[in-house]
Every structure is written in C-alpha cells, then in structure tokens.
Design brief:
By secondary structure, the protein is mainly α. The protein has one domain (5-63). The chain has 3 helices and no strands.
Length: 64
C-alpha cells in the first residue's frame, strides 16, 4: 500500500489513539465500547485505503 506522508500520519495518529483507548480499557480505567482490537485495526486500514484512493499525492506515489 503506497501512501503519502499526510495519509501515513493520519493512519498513525488513528492507531495511536486506538492503542491508548484499548490500553485504558485493558487497565479498567475506561470501559467505553465492546469491540475487539482487530475490528478497530480493520476499520483504520479501511479508512487508510479509502483515503489513499482519493488522495492525489497517494496516487502519484503509487505510480512511481
């Protein structure tokens, strides 16, 4: 999957936020949802794939 720096940063921030939220859930600090970690991962990967398909910078990186 070829992505520009902007889309990589967005996916990285989403993964970081998700990781922190799942850590808080595992520690029992905040029980806010009932989804598994792999479901969240598929959602983030889907967002990255859709964003990369619409981003002209990602399209240019894929052509190189």
């Amino acid at each position: 999957m070829h992505m520009c720096k902007k889309c990589k940063k967005i996916c990285g921030v989403l993964l970081l936020i998700g990781g922190i939220l799942f850590l808080l859930r595992d520690l029992g600090v905040w029980n806010f949802w009932n989804i598994q970690w792999w479901t969240f991962l598929f959602i983030v990967l889907g967002i990255g794939k859709v964003a990369g398909g619409k981003c002209p910078d990602c399209q240019a990186a894929a052509e190189k």
